[in-house]
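User: I'm writing a tutorial on reading structure tokens. Could you give me a worked example: one chain, its sequence, then its tokens, then a sentence or two explaining what the tokens reveal?
Assistant: Sure. Here is the example chain.
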Amino acid sequence: MKKLILIVLVAVVGWQAYMKYQAKQLAYANTQEETSVVDSHSPPRSQLDTSPSNNFKCDGRTYCSQMASCEEATFFLRNCPGVKMDGNNDGIPCEKQWCK
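And here are its predicted structure tokens:
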């Protein structure tokens, strides 16, 4: 009888773990789907640069410490992939160093 209870208990715990795993997978898939929908409706990065200044170019720099001005950091944030200059995602880069 104890073996049967133990087997049932293990099965219930396994089932619960499986259901939590499935829920996380579904949530992740929904997040990816929402991200792709947003990306498909946003304009290409080349259209995001509204400044007349073309003095800057994406050259692999990603951090505020690598920038020389707020304008440069803003250009990188709007036009270059993988930058790490907007910690609170408010669209203003390098708030502590350049864009106060």
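What the tokens reveal: Helices lie at 2-41, 45-48, 70-79. Residues 60-100 form one domain.
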